[in-house]
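Weekly modeling sync, notes
Attendees: S.R. (lead), two postdocs, one rotation student

Agenda item 3: backlog of single-chain predictions. S.R. asked that every request posted to the team notebook include the full sequence so nobody has to chase files. The rotation student volunteered to paste the first one in as an example of the format we agreed on. Action items at the bottom.

Example entry:
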Amino acid sequence: MLDKERLKGKIRSAFADEQNEQSDYNKSLDNISEKIAQAVIDEVKQAKIQYVSGLISPTSGGPVTGTITHTIS
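Predicted structure, as returned to the notebook:
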């Protein structure tokens, strides 16, 4: 399940960890960017898609068709 506060905490932490960096600005930006990117990836991996309806399975086999009705949390 997506959690805004968990993601916000990871982003805050990424900035806080680099707040005192004074010698290598670009390295600090890379570190922050890496941590934020990983936090977003981790959060997306927590997403849950709940299928509700909409897909039709052919009786003779093959791929399903239709428009999926779903919720994402």
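Discussion: group reviewed the output briefly. DSSP finds two helices and two strands in the chain.
Action items: rotation student to repeat for the remaining queue; S.R. to check formatting next week.
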